[in-house]
Amino acid sequence: MQYKLIALDIDGTLLNDEHQLSEVNKETVRRVHDAGATIVLCSGRAPQSVFPILDQLGLEGTIIAHNGASTVLSEGNELVHDFSVPTDAYGELFQYLRSNNIHFDVCTTFDLYLEAATQEALDIYAQFFVNPHIIPDVMQLPRIVKMTLAAEVEVIEEAERTMRERGLVTGLNMFRSGANFLDLVHEKATKGNALKELADSMGIPYDQVIAIGNYYNDVEMIELAGLGIAMGNSPDDLKKIAQDVTVSNNEDGVAQALIKYCLT
């Protein structure tokens, strides 16, 4: 098999819109793994939200979490590498979010923190296997690897513009990980950089890497890979930079792509 490292985004890619892993995708990923390829899940999720998907696949190994800010081994929850930022550098940013009632959470590699949450919000976190810690002020955390804003599309777009204009996000990368979500991480943290490090450490040339994703936080890994594949449900901008486009996440697009390039 030509491809030795397969990087898969999770939400909107490996999982369908009901956040379920289909039997077709599960069986196909397993077949590719059994044929000798290394499977790495690359997600904006925290590790504790990625491990259950890895378990469903019946796999162990390395995951890339927090949009490339943390690389973790599933065996023993061993942190391989992270890109963290000092929390006290972003006091003005937190104050802007609070004053505009924009929901946000912050993460260390293994934990997620909120200053306040409704029961509805907690129920949503639970769907992703996350049990947030409620603390009075996120500034009490010395360092974080990711901050996520959640709001209506118009609010997210306005916040993104304002934060840039006011210089509140110096040293940070901002990713739209979904229409209603904006992730902020260390300026060097991308799925592409984390995948590059992993491929280098394994001695795998980039032309033997496949990356499959569906949104803007997948751009860098799709560009890095020898074969970058966009999902059918991806924005047109992502489809244009990919070498191929598979069908949507609700049509087992991951399985179809892997069968095409790894199993035939």
Automatic annotation (TrEMBL):
Mind telling me which GO cellular component terms the entry cites? Answer: cytosol
Q: Where are the transmembrane segments?
A: none
Q: Per UniProt, what is one Pfam family of this protein? A: Hydrolase_3
* Gene3D superfamilies registered for this protein in UniProt: 3.30.1240.10, HAD superfamily/HAD-like
- At the top level, the lineage of the source is Bacteria
User: Could you cite one Gene Ontology molecular function of this protein?
Assistant: magnesium ion binding
Q: Which NCBIfam families match?
A: Cof-subfamily, HAD-SF-IIB
Sorted alphabetically, which PANTHER family does this protein's record hold? HAD SUPERFAMILY HYDROLASE-LIKE, TYPE 3, PHOSPHOSERINE PHOSPHATASE
Q: What is this protein called?
A: HAD family phosphatase
Q: What is the lineage of its organism?
A: Bacteria, Bacillati, Bacillota, Bacilli, Bacillales
